[in-house]
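Technical appendix A lists one of the benchmark inputs used to test multi-chain prediction within the project. The record comprises two sequence entries:
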Amino acid sequence: MEILDSRLKLFLYSMTLSIMILISGLYFCQIYQGDKYIRLAHNNRLRMIRFPAPRGEIFDRNGVPLAVNDTTFCIMGYPLDLNTPAKLEHLSRILKRHGIPITVADLEKTIKQQRLAPYRVMKIVPNLTMTQMAELVADYEFPHELFPLSVWRRTYPAGPTAANILGYVGEISEEELKARAEDGYTGGDLIGKSGIERSYEAILRGSPGQEALEVDARGRKVRTLDANNAVKGEDIHLTLDMGAQKMAVELLGSNKGALIAMDVHTGAVIALASSPVYDNNPLAWGISGREWVALMNDPARPMLNRAIAGVYPPASTFKAFMSIACLEENVITPSSMYTCRGGLRFATHTFKCWKHSGHGGLNVLGALQHSCDVFFYQVGMKAGIDKLIKWGRKFHLGEPTGIDLPGESGGNIAGAEWKMRRFKTTWGTGDTINYSIGQGYMLMTPIQIARVYAAIANGGKMVTPHFNRNAYKTPEDIGLTPEKLAVVQKGLGYVVSRGTGSRAGRFGVSIAGKTGTAQNSHGDDHALFAGYAPAENPKYVAVAVVEAGKHGSSVAAPMVGQLLAHLLSH
Amino acid sequence: MWDSLKEDLASTDRIMLGCALMLSLWGVFCIYSAAAGASGRGFDLAVKQSAWLMVSIGAMLVVMVVGHHKLLEGAYPLFGLTLLLLLLTDLLAPKVNGAQSWLGFGGVRFQPSEFAKVTIILMMSKFLSRYPPYDLKTFAAGLGVISLPVLLVLIQPDAGSALVYLVISFGMLVSAGTPFKYLGTLVGLGLAGIPIIIMFFLKEYQKNRILVFIDPMRDPLGAGYNVIQSRIAVGSGGLSGKGFMAGTQSKLKFLPEPHTDFIFSVFSEEFGFIGNLLLIFLFSVLLFRIILTGVHSRDRRCKILVSGVASWLWFQMFESMGMSIGLTPVTGLPLPFLSYGGSSLLATFIALGLVASVYIEGVSTKRVFYINPQ
């Protein structure tokens, strides 16, 4: 027993000793070297710098660069090193001396953003050129706690011409950071905000590099302790043809609207212009809040990609769809004749034909050629809304086409069910009459119209419009009867060769298509034209929508004609 | 039963239990602060730890009522059960952070390796008092007993627990009166074996931990990162600390695993040297009371038993505090009472229940408790 007690006492002694050692260790660390560690915690000697990966570049179908990376410089630093007004004043003075107009207030605002984490390195001044940076660093007064960091800046050589397609990149927002918590983003990273940049973010972004630096008390790099290299994102090649795109933008000119060209067999988009345009370069470099608000509140809405998100009544371009639906449903035969006397009286209302004197008797071919409203009023009434909706669904009206751009609208297929849900009233025959000429509740985006016309041109296959040349999807055959489709194709040919769309046919290629004039409650009518060429062996489809362009025949048809002629001659 | 519990509580070592409670409550606050910065789950984890503390206190009371006599009687079967559970863990448990140490049991996960510390103490105190390790044969038999659980946790692989088992057993061998020549030889062999263990038995990350213990700057982003950042956290706490919830190292996520392995770094950063002295004072009083309970007891088994509990708590305290200032290598052992973790807390309180039970017996036989009973 005694030996046990003596051993327990040994325990007491050794524990006392070990606790003395522990306390000495803590004393050494917290008191003797405390100041050193306090400073280290402040400066945290170990500074981690993240290098954004160069983004994958974007090219058009001929290899023309559309989105590239330029090297620029940022001044990086720690908020702790800029914690007095005097230091800010000093930095601002030096910047101004080298022609960089950054005020003390600007600096304060930047630094305030990171008040919660003053020990993290942050971007103090962005977007400097190599020359500017070199001059600054050479300035003997330049604060040594700050250091330059080269970063990639995204530039879009085509600027406004393809901004609606490419979109732009910007610094990741709080919400995006939260939503993409799993994907390894951190504050300050660039992320695709719209367009191709956004749809293919995962492919384009690459993986960032990291460098761990040991720095001295003044924040200067002593040595690199460890580094991972950044890996560039993958390049993307688009089906877009910059020549055609440029032409499309120029054709639209100062009009508001959209002009699209697409391969009828694959759905490869060759041109997709939306007007008015905006320049995506300043957006990628960071614009001020005021400029952003001005851009968003511009009544012309340049940021709206009208080609995929603008919804319009398809107007008379819808008549090609109506003809197919009524022929397929055997509501009419190719030889069924209806008479137009300039209007159709239904209940208390007269639905007018655009030609007030009337077209007389005509079949479906004549009705397409002359764009007779009364013919389609009558066949539409005879078919009934349900059959039209049934065919609308076959053509995927009312749903997005699945183009690889964000923010696409699905338009509106309407119908009795929809009207009850939306307005709590029943669908009347008058609604069907309006629907039959693509007015009223029927709304489509230009890309949807292009897709329907592509299906008419290629024998009834619904393509998926796409920009990325790897995004081709096998078209879906919706099973149209070839003989009946041939009647409609012939009718569309007549529209250009001897009907309302003759102005589309003056550019040396044979075009089949349809004009449209959409009533616009806000002003002048919208002008539309949808067509494909060559009429005999279609390759490309093109659609023009010109807001307040008054007549499809005079404004929109020549645009489509010129664009298709350009595509076929190149 | 309630009457006997009341009696037990009235006659037990309230100073020891008071220290344990204060440490645990302080721990809950530290977990709140530590996890608030790292994962934003501070409140959540603090509530969970409080719930575990309730359960642990309950378990301790049960142990006190049952008494150490009955548990020592059941030491062999309990030890057998422990070995079985450790074996099951090796075979069944999913891997967490590269080691399989958790067993799921009807929705509750627990670490058998923590409870093994209690049953090893029971087993060894019974075994060593029946076969005192005075000669080579009994000494070797004692080593043989302890090698079983050590091997089973090494398979997981959980080198930290294996180390604790070895330290507990060594402490118990010392208190059981093993001749110093045997102990000296054992220590000598152990030191000589370190290079062999490092070469053949440690995983790459464990080797790195040893290497960065010698020079943290050799891998500042990998294994050395923890040591460097932890030392900065402790050191920057200074004399009086940065204040509760104001530690920059833990809040800015420089500290890894702040609410478990590096809880002491969080504590030191926020409460400083003065806070540390207070914390160590509480630990010291607790440990001294545990050992004095053994000195006071008339039962051979109990003397050995308390030395096991004391070795366990002392070692984990010393190691956990030591590693946060680079005094000892990083092992990832929890700081008793403070680190987040239900199994660890529960096992610790069960052990304290045993000590309290020994104390009560001592009081009832001797009535008076002297600091230096001669």
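The first strand of chain B starts at residue 103 and ends at 105. Residues 47 and 223 of chain B are 31 Å apart (CA to CA). Comparable benchmark entries are summarised in Table A2.
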